[in-house]
Amino acid sequence: GDSVTQMEGPVTLSEEAFLTINCTYTATGYPSLFWYVQYPGEGLQLLLKATKADDKGSNKGFEATYRKETTSFHLEKGSVQVSDSAVYFCALSDSRNTPLVFGKGTRLSVIA
Amino acid sequence: DAGVIQSPRHEVTEMGQEVTLRCKPISGHNSLFWYRQTMMRGLELLIYFNNNVPIDDSGMPEDRFSAKMPNASFSTLKIQPSEPRDSAVYFCASSPVAGGQETQYFGPGTRLLVL
């Protein structure tokens, strides 16, 4: 079945450092790919998404490119802030009208 | 627009008691999802509904758990009897449709502690 694999956390970075959180997926069809973010004490919220190969999703300085050849959707940000501290979830949804499949989440802590 | 509304936000109960969690999805959304989140197991999909009909409840841990969606604007997740291992954060989410390119919108969650 479909699955998502994320790098294990926690990831601790200093403010203004470069961030990469790796995500790879397995799917039989042509899924849409998502990154969700969960801030402390809150529910998940969509950060960005990409619906076809080579699409780049971007939001709040975060970017991820849908790479079909490597089945990856790595999340990047050039300069993280303390306010980016959260748990980040990679997810996919295939074309068969089934719910999102989430990765296990990666906790990011940014220190000043 | 109001997002997904969940109540209560926090619940503390004793083992053996019945617990009912409530969810109001975003108006116009046709799919509703219940998730459970724990440190050990991460985010788990318990059950989801399309147009008020339960589609997949394979994630419901056992018969003590039940979920209903009597109409398009309300759903409940009930645990009877509750056990300490049910302690978790329970999220409700809604979406225009169940999959494809559609985004799921999450509520703030109900933090449940069973003593």
DSSP E strands of chain A, number: 12
Helix percent of chain A reads under 10%
Greatest interface by residues involved = A-B, 21 and 23 residues
What overall form of chain B do the CA principal axes indicate?
Answer: globular
Query: What structural class do you assign from the helix and strand content of chain A?
Result: mainly beta
**First-to-last CA distance of chain A:** 41 Å
Shape of chain A: globular
Note the total helix count of chain A: 0
Spans of chain A with pLDDT under 50 lasting ≥5 residues?
A: none
- Rg of chain B, Å, rounded: 13 Å
Q: What average pLDDT do the residues of chain B reach?
A: 93
Strand content of the residues of chain B, in percent? over 45%
Helix percent of chain B reads: under 10%
Between the first and last Cα atoms of chain B, what is the distance in angstroms? 36 Å
Oligomer: heterodimer
Largest sheet of chain A: 6 strands, mixed
Care to count the β-strands of chain B? Answer: 11
State the order of secondary-structure elements of chain A, H for helix, E for strand. Answer: EEEEEEEEEEEE
Notes on the structure:
The complex is a heterodimer of chains A (112) and B (115). By secondary structure, chain A is an all-beta fold. In chain A, 0% of the residues lie in helices and 50% in strands. Chain A has strands at 3-6, 11-14, 19-21, 23-26, 32-38, 44-50, 56-59, 62-65, 75-77, 86-93, 101-102, 106-111. The N and C termini of chain A lie far apart (41 Å). Chain B is mainly β and 115 residues long. In chain B, 0% of the residues lie in helices and 54% in strands. Chain B is built from no helices and eleven strands. In chain B, the strands form two sheets. In chain B, strands 2, 4, 5, 6, 9, 10 and 11 form a seven-stranded mixed β-sheet that branches. In chain B, a hairpin with a 2-residue loop joins β7 and β8 (74-79). Chains A and B meet through β6 of A and β5 and β10 of B.
